[in-house]
Amino acid sequence: MFDYLIVGAGFAGSVLAERLATRSNKKVLIIDKRNHIGGNAYDHYNEEGVLVHKYGPHIFHTNSKEVFEYLSNFTDWRPYEHWVLASVDGQHVPIPINLDTINKLYGTNMTSFEVDAFFESQAEEVPVIRTSEDVVVSKVGRELYEKFFRNYTRKQWGLDPSELDKSVTSRVPTRTNRDRRYFTDTYQAMPLHGYTKMFEKMLDHPNIKIMLNTDYHDIINVIPFKEMIFTGPVDEYFDFKFGKLPYRSLEFKHETLNKEWHLEAPVVNYPNEHLYTRITEFKALTGQQHPKTSIVYEFPRAEGDPYYPIPKPENAELYNKYKKLADETPNVHFVGRLATYKYYNMDQVVAQALTVYKKLTEKEKEEKGT
Ligand code: FAD
Ligand code: UDP
Question: What is the ipTM of this complex?
Fold first, then answer.
């Protein structure tokens, strides 16, 4: 008899497996329908020996000391500050939009003060910022919105930014200085030997059994357990009772090239050209030295593996119905990006899982009356 069945061996499932096994001495069975651990953060050495992220580029960044220190138990780090160029009007310019972006794009030589005034002159007045269009046009105006955000977002989400929650484009700031970093978090680093190695270390404990290539439907009535942690799509758990929750998918096209470097930056975004949104060159992220280089193209798709919850009001409403049901389901705990239908980064999922662990231990203490 297992104390916990954990469905999904990504960040949500693996953090909980590790905490429950090592801190609470629980017997845990963690399963995944895929043939590997790590969830969407899984990385591996491809046939040519280059370390690649199977499900697209994963860059770790967080402001949470607790999350960073927690993961540091399982990996050393390689300091890495991510940066990205966008292909716009035939040039490659920094995104997030900054002083250099504007000067390069318009052939100007503005100062920070001047570019600030320029943004102000371009910005549209938006009384209440609700959508992903509002966020951008209220800061930098319609022209830059059209060049950098409108088409990228339509391609990525299959929706106009005016249909998406403000939280989506709010992920990308606008700057008047020359800071080219994609993120400004306190901790920015890549696991020194990759994500999969970190997951292997997290799950290496006698109280943890791992079963891969296993869908929970196949074992749920066969293997006895007391409680379940579910990290797959919440609508699937409830047999789509209220209808399908929309998730956006991607198709990844991986390529290895017979040269040392390919791109001018770790990632190049293509807002207005091509059917893919961006190209990533993995060695820039991982620091690996290799005579060849591996890249990945991301093609957005309506169908396929669920990668992104789609933040818009109707979807939040539908999710709330599932959440109510989830809250009422005894002994099953829903954790992670798919099970709580949140556009979470890795660190947010780790933080959520650590919080769930604390709640579980408190609940147990209460039940024991200690
Ligand atoms: P997942 O990693 O999706 O794990 C869920 C697991 O459950 C999966 O392995 C799945 O196979 C399994 N599962 C589902 N259903 C079943 C079932 N029926 N039976 C058995 N197993 C099942 N975050 C960052 O912080 N930085 C980034 O740079 C970044 N880049 C990203 C790029 C892309 C293209 C994507 C898609 C995401 C990115 N993220 C990034 C987000 C990051 O991937 C997630 O926050 C994190 O991996 C979520 O962890 P999770 O455990 O909630 O879900
Ligand atoms: N975005 C955009 N143009 C860009 C970069 C981002 O329009 O050059 C928008 C787009 O809607 C995207 C969102 O901002 O989905 C969030 O971008 P991020 O790079 O955080 O996406 P992720 O890495 O999660 O796919």
Answer: 0.99
